[in-house]
Amino acid sequence: MKKLNCCLLSGGFSLLISTPVLSQPLTSLANINSSSSSIEFTPLPLPTTEIILTHTDENRSDNQWTSGRPDGHAPLGVMGDHVHGKGEWMLSYRYMFMSMDGNRDGTDNLGVDEVLADFMVSPDDMTMEMHMIGVMYAPSNDLTLMAMLPFVSKEMDHITRMGSSFTTNSGGLGDIKLSGLYQILDRDRQTVHLNLGFSVPTGSIDERDDTPAGNDVILPYPMQIGSGTVDLRPGITYLGQTDHWSWGAQANTVLRLGENDRGYTVGNRYQLTAWTARKLNENFSLSLRLDGETWEDYDGADSALNPMVIPTADPDLRGGTRLDLGLGLNAYLPEGFLPGGRLATEFEFPIYQSLDGPQLETDWQLTVGIQSAF
């Protein structure tokens, strides 16, 4: 008797089956009694069929980068950091909270009294919350499509020269971001892909609230939700890993196209970030990240805003540079309640910032999220 071995590959699993092949005529399996016209069948002992299921980690070899580990994704604050295999989907949710407290001009801290010496109103502190829903789909192994849908909420406290205080609020759908991630290198456990994206002006630039100057007045620039323009978002991402460590870097920009309906253009942004992560075990990893960003002042001005009243209404006081340090934790739970499930968090705080002020300075930012790939 001979054996026929089959190997079937489907959905990242290999199926190995061993079955017997008959090498004798069927009549040998039975005893035929011609006189009684009866046929007696003799059972033929067959070896047990063996079925072995093994996960192939998306059929990747040992010298290729893989996302199937806790540090297979970048720290949570990095967007568009990885591509997917053909036909794979990923859904994600991120919650981001940023706290800003106190004013700064250049690298110098400013008290409220110093700001009120030149303006009638001073911003005191501000918080921003964002709920980000993400969808990724890979039509091929080289191209992954991504869409990000943000919902933003902002609150700013103010102090007037007369000593009174007031608070303004804004919120709603932000600018929707659409991207294509195109992989150009994947070898020796390192990958490089291009980030080719843009955003559409779905975020409001007409946010209003009640202030001492009147009811339902247009709010200054930091309290608006969107840019009001179509923005290009090109970038490039590099990833590398060993058995227990991973690292990466990403450079990206936001380039504003044209002028919005209120007569100004938000300043361009330029970002460079780099990180390293340590895989603690098969489920958890820790990361350390540096994130540098610079952004420009606005061009043009909203005619409804008076820059003599409050610095947040001055388009020439919007630029700055900041370097943040981020500490992150990733949890990879592929056998959990979600397919390909991940939980992650990252805490960031500035170690350097220089602002075209007076401007509110950033104190810290927290990001938490959940992801599922299938």
Protein architecture, described:
This protein folds into 2 domains: 2-55, no CATH class; 70-373, Porin (Beta Barrel). The protein contains 1 helix and 22 strands. It has one helix at 112-116, and strands at residues 2-10, 13-21, 30-33, 38-41, 50-55, 89-106, 108-110, 121-137, 143-160, 165-173, 176-187, 190-200, 208-211, 214-218, 230-241, 245-257, 264-265, 269-279, 284-295, 299-300, 320-333, 341-373.
The assigned CATH architecture of the largest domain is: Beta Barrel
Domain count: the total is 2
Q: Give me the oligomer status.
A: single chain
CATH superfamily of the largest domain: monomeric porin ompg
Helix content: under 10%
Question: How many β-strands, per DSSP?
Answer: 22
Question: Which CATH class of the largest domain applies here?
Answer: Mainly Beta
InterPro entries: FApF (IPR025737)
Protein name: Transporter
Keywords: Signal
Pfam families: Phenol_MetA_deg (PF13557)
Layout of strands and helices, then pairs:
Elements lengths: L1 E9 L2 E9 L8 E4 L4 E4 L8 E6 L33 E18 L1 E3 L1 H5 L4 E17 L5 E18 L4 E9 L2 E12 L2 E11 L7 E4 L2 E5 L11 E12 L3 E13 L6 E2 L3 E11 L4 E12 L3 E2 L19 E14 L7 E33 L1
Antiparallel strand pairs: 1-2, 2-5, 3-4, 6-7, 6-8, 6-22, 8-9, 9-10, 9-11, 11-12, 12-15, 13-14, 15-16, 16-18, 17-20, 18-19, 19-21, 21-22
Features:
374 residues, mainly beta, Porin, 2 domains, eleven-stranded antiparallel barrel, three-stranded antiparallel beta sheet, disordered N terminus
Give a short summary of the structure.
The chain contains 1 helix and 22 strands.
